Predict the structure.
Amino acid sequence: MRKRPRPDQIAAILRDFQTDLDAGLNLNQACRKAGIGPSTYYRWKALQENPVSKEQMHVSELESEVGRLKLLVAELALDRRMLQEALKKTRLANLTEAGCVEER
């Protein structure tokens, strides 16, 4: 099983690749020399041109966490409201049984 190259190795491969292209090799020949496929070259090149920074990844993680927490708060608020309504009903029933409140 082959290991995946590290980001610094990918950058080195792309630099060598660009050197080969500048020397006159076509894309397929340069891919064969580097030991990668054309789709891999284009994917790596796109990642090098527009890298996803750690800050961007952290922001997206935080946004997903905020969404999860909002859902949790909404569920807890609903549970609280249901418990308050049930408590009102039981208090009213207890007061009615004790004769403190007239039934309507």
